[in-house]
Every structure is written in structure tokens, then in C-alpha cells.
């Protein structure tokens, strides 16, 4: 007989699988980047079409990015930042150990 599983149990089990934690982190980063671009776009009262035109992209590409569906290259982030009148800042910071 099949057991039913709630989302938290399924998520916890899947995160123990090899490579899952890295994939989860990549999805988080993609989501955060998309959210930042969407918030800047909306603060300028721009549509996705307007941003796409200014950045030399297509509207579906902007929509996918804002939804966290893609992780862009640095040149794409630079084009989006330039189109939005923003500075792109990329930095690496050391992790703190949870002693």
C-alpha cells in the first residue's frame, strides 16, 4: 500500500540525495536575482517588454529570469543592471562556521 507523504517530509528526504543541496542553493540564487531585477523594474513602473527592449532581450527571457527559472551569465546581469540604471556588484565572502 502506498504511503502518503507531506511536502516537508518529501523535501527533507530529497535534500539528502546526492547533489540536491547544491541544486537547492542554485535555485535560491536564481530566485533572489530574479526578485531583485523584478523589484527594480517595478520601481521604475516598467513592463517586462520595456526592460527587455532596454536590455536587448526578449520579454519571455525577462519573465523566466524574474521567476527564477534561469541563472544568467555575468554579461546578462550587466545588461540588465545597465538597462535599469543600477550597478552590478558581485562579491565573494567567506562563510562563517556554525561552531
UniProtKB/TrEMBL annotation:
SUPFAM superfamilies: lambda repressor-like DNA-binding domains. Pfam families: HTH_31 (PF13560). Residues 37-91 form the HTH cro/C1-type domain. Keywords: DNA-binding. It comes from the Bacteria. This is Helix-turn-helix domain-containing protein. It comes from Amycolatopsis pigmentata.
Amino acid at each position: 500500500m502506498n504511503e502518503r507523504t507531506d511536502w516537508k517530509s518529501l523535501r527533507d528526504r530529497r535534500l539528502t540525495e546526492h547533489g540536491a543541496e547544491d541544486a537547492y542553493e542554485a535555485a535560491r540564487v536564481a530566485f533572489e536575482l530574479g526578485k531583485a531585477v523584478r523589484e527594480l523594474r517595478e520601481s521604475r513602473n516598467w513592463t517586462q517588454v520595456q526592460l527587455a527592449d532596454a536590455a536587448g532581450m526578449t520579454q519571455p527571457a525577462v519573465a523566466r529570469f524574474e521567476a527564477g527559472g534561469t541563472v544568467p551569465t555575468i554579461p546578462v546581469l550587466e545588461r540588465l543592471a545597465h538597462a535599469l540604471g543600477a550597478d552590478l556588484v558581485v562579491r565573494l565572502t567567506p562563510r562563517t562556521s556554525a561552531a
